């Protein structure tokens, strides 16, 4: 394998780990399908919205749909199967933000329609049914897998912009974790057990300036703490972000792997030895979620 090639997880990170991309997809799940609706609810600039919609169509996550507006025909957008399959990532992001980030306006509860009750999300292994957290897994990274230097060249840095004031899309903690590809990679590395600055830099091939910035942000957010020996250790809040990263890896395997990208990173469940396939269960009734059985995602 040539080291200049991005693997499945690297490509998935480049596609999804972007604040505006995730918020546009989140709103698509909530029923938004028209340009003006995204612009109004997200308070996003025309240039940014147009660029992200174009990128999502090119990546196969959204597809154009025509609709009638009086006597005129206009262009809207709908989630594809590929785009719709990030529902687990969005639910885990919502659950983490609601649980761990204090806010004046609370996020709505996650409701499992099968039992009708508000619930937390329980992350399980689909192969054996066991509950899964970062300490129950091991990560296998292929030695040829490139670092963020290649990811940065393939996917130029995007501006973060200002988060929307709309409470449904104001997710300041989660967007630090998954809405920025450098931050997502650094926290993902921490979840594999990396603690020292030099080890982060070597594993990710990330510049010292960018790495210092992301580590500082995560300490301020409370997902990492800095020990007396200068190492960075996950807090309970940081370990709780594991489902977000696991869902990103799973989506990347399924869809970027299907495009021919080789598997560069695998999360394996120690108890059964299988590559982790995430199942989200309702803590109230114990049954598994489906895409159309849990809010805030609306059924098709």
Automatic annotation (TrEMBL):
Keyword list, A-Z: DNA-binding, Transcription, Transcription regulation
Organism taxonomic ancestry: Bacteria, Bacillati, Actinomycetota, Actinomycetes, Pseudonocardiales
Identification of the protein by name: Winged helix-turn-helix transcriptional regulator
Highest taxon above the source species: Bacteria
Domain HTH hxlR-type, first and last residues per copy: 2-105, 166-260
Pfam families in the cross-refs: HxlR
InterPro entries named in the record: HTH_HxlR, WH-like_DNA-bd_sf, WH_DNA-bd_sf
Record-annotated membrane-spanning stretches: none
């Amino acid at each position: 394998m040539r080291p200049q090639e991005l693997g499945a997880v690297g490509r998935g990170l480049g596609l999804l780990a972007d604040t505006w991309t995730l918020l546009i997809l989140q709103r698509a799940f909530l029923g938004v399908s028209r340009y003006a609706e995204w612009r109004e609810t997200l308070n996003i600039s025309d240039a940014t919205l147009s660029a992200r919609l174009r990128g999502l169509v090119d990546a196969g996550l959204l597809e154009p749909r025509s609709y009638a507006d009086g006597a005129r025909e206009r262009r809207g957008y709908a989630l594809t199967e590929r785009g719709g399959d990030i529902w687990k990532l969005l639910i885990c992001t919502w659950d983490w933000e609601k649980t761990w980030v204090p806010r004046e306006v609370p996020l709505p509860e996650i409701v499992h329609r099968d039992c009708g009750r508000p619930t937390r999300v329980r992350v399980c292994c689909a192969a054996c049914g066991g509950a899964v957290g970062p300490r129950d897994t091991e990560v296998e990274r292929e030695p040829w897998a490139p670092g963020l230097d290649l990811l940065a060249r393939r996917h130029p840095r995007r501006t973060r912009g200002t988060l929307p004031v709309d409470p449904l899309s104001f997710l300041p903690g989660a967007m630090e974790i998954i809405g920025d590809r450098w931050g997502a990679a650094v926290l993902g590395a921490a979840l594999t057990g990396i603690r020292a600055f030099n080890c982060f830099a070597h594993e990710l091939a990330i510049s010292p300036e960018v790495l210092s910035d992301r580590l500082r942000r995560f300490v301020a957010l409370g997902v990492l703490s800095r020990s007396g020996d200068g190492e960075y250790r996950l807090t309970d809040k940081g370990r709780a972000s594991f489902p977000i990263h696991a869902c990103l890896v799973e989506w990347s395997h399924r869809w970027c792997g299907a495009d021919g990208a080789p598997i560069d990173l695998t999360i394996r469940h120690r108890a059964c030895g299988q590559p982790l396939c995430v199942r989200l269960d309702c803590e109230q009734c114990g049954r598994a979620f489906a895409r159309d059985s849990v809010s805030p995602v609306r059924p098709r």
